[in-house]
Amino acid sequence: MVYYHNIMDDNKKSRGDDNEYYFRIPVSFIKRILNNPLSEFLIVTDIGYFPRAKYHNCYRNKGLDITLFIYCSEGCGYYSINNSVDRVVKSGQMLILPAGVPHNYSASDHDPWTIYWMYAKGSFFDSFNKNWRPVSAKQGSADKDIPPELINISDMIGERIKEIFHQCFNLLELPYQWEDFFYLCQLAATIISLIPRGAKRSASRLTDNGNRGIEAAISYMKNNIRKSITLEELANAACFSPSYLHHIFYESSGYAPIEYFLRIKIQAAAKEIFFSDKTVREIAEAYGISDPFYFSRLFKKITGLSPQQYRQSPRRGGETRLD
Fold it and tell me: In terms of domains, do 167 and 255 share one?
């Protein structure tokens, strides 16, 4: 079947199969959400999925007044912005075309891309475009030659992004409801929020074995959160040497393994400080830290507050809790 992937001057066609999705949100819903201060930060206008989208192409000499996200899950395509030379979009990459940027894109003839895509706008993008630079655009990155609009996404985050897109499609196959549209926009915000995380993990270039080892180490941490563990124990759980685990763990998360463990330990202990009347010493010992002064210093370093300050925060008692 044939779908037109356009909201303005898109002149391409996508030729795929019955598994394609294309949804254009009714203008009445968009106008209503634009006037809602709770949701005006991010609004989805169009969203879809084109598998093996042969003949898919688009040329926009003036760009759009909206941001376009294209996640390539298979195959490849091409794009250019501001009349630059064509660049390749490969499987596992997210292409972000900001509002106001002239651009064109097309599927490869010999290996046409499979893409998940959406158009979105709202006040959210004022902050997103100004404050976030993808890992590939940062100096010293292994991917520093990749332009900032094209972002490598790790396989694990890529799978999550696809899952959320399909949640959106399932929602939109039902008769449109205001509540569903509001939820759709929240799902879109989740997709966008995963991009920096996916880029960070992709930049580490970990193998599948490396990812499994890190997941095994984190699982061991969670299962022993109330104990004191060593790097050697974590390395055994991951089936790596201590030095190799330290290397790939830091590359993936930005933290050394033991520092990561202490952070999840403190974050768990913070719940008990907030909701219980146990002493700081009791809570510290319950999480395998025998020195309450060390626990307090560590707690303040991670949360920004001492245990007592955290316990006395305004939300404790009669105000809203988020659990």
Answer: no
